[in-house]
Amino acid sequence: MSRQMVRPGGRSARVQASVHAAVRELASEVGRDALTVPLVARRAGVTPSTIYRRWGDLQELLSDVAVERLRPDTAPEDHGDLASDLTAWAEQFLDEMASPAGRAYVRDALLGDPDGGNAGRCSAYAAEQVGILLARATERGESTPDVETVVDRVVAPLMYRILFRPDGLDASYAGRLVAGILGHGDR
Amino acid sequence: MSRQMVRPGGRSARVQASVHAAVRELASEVGRDALTVPLVARRAGVTPSTIYRRWGDLQELLSDVAVERLRPDTAPEDHGDLASDLTAWAEQFLDEMASPAGRAYVRDALLGDPDGGNAGRCSAYAAEQVGILLARATERGESTPDVETVVDRVVAPLMYRILFRPDGLDASYAGRLVAGILGHGDR
């Protein structure tokens, strides 16, 4: 997590935006493993000490950039009922997180994250998206599990298998997890 | 994962044992963040190039050592029935993995693991222990879920929350996960 609070539009926010942009550009040009703090600083037009002061080291900067990339930029699609909504969301979550880029971001987010704040933000993003789906279902009059139950039964197995046990991970597995939680009486 | 196959008792196995021991000793003496390949090599009585040749870099070595520390050295205890066995195992798994040392090992195992082999070994250890409990229950005539279902419903939520969402993680949460899987009809 960035070491300073960032006021939108201020100098600090501009530095953050240019450093994040430099990381993204250089990662696609020279590859993530070739990144160094001086290289990023030169591209961003800041001094290396600005980066060290704000982020501590390269891993913490990469963790911050990764979390930013993992932030959903739209609410999940509305398919008319909870089973369809949650299935579509779980399939898309799996697609994004299990892709080579997604795996790299998740690893970066976890690894440069001494206080666990960035991992917590990743999990909060998923829980927020799930919360939107559940609130929509409640408005329709559907009975729903709670957010933490969906985290345990859908988000956790998907993320655990992406990180530790990737064999057999596909859309039908995501669908079975959702069916498992909506098909039983444990709401 | 170590880059060479290791024949037990051979020179390669002796090098591995002394390098692993050097990492463990130095980590407790000077701290994990102060470790370097030359420091580990000197303590282990090998050349740095031996370490680079076999492990690639410090991160991959630390990943190997971490997985070794996460390997269970005994079969899980027998409490007479599956619910008690699985509850005790889940509580102990949570205790070990959520401890500061456990978290550090899990992070190290994931970090220096370009091919995912070490993360896979961590998951295989958990699945093996669960498999022993389930086989024991089957012998007793109890009906049991399968290993992958226990991974999804117990192991995955515990590990996901340890890494991403640690609030409210305690023995009663582990117990609820086990009750959830044994209390319903989804076997």
From TrEMBL, chains A, B:
Transmembrane segments: none annotated. GO terms for molecular function: DNA-binding transcription factor activity; transcription cis-regulatory region binding. SUPFAM superfamilies: Homeodomain-like, Tetracyclin repressor-like, C-terminal domain. Pfam families: TetR_C_11 (PF16859), TetR_N (PF00440). It comes from the Bacteria. Residues 36-55 bind DNA. Residues 13-73 form the HTH tetR-type domain. Keywords: DNA-binding, Transcription, Transcription regulation. This is TetR family transcriptional regulator. It comes from Streptomyces leeuwenhoekii.
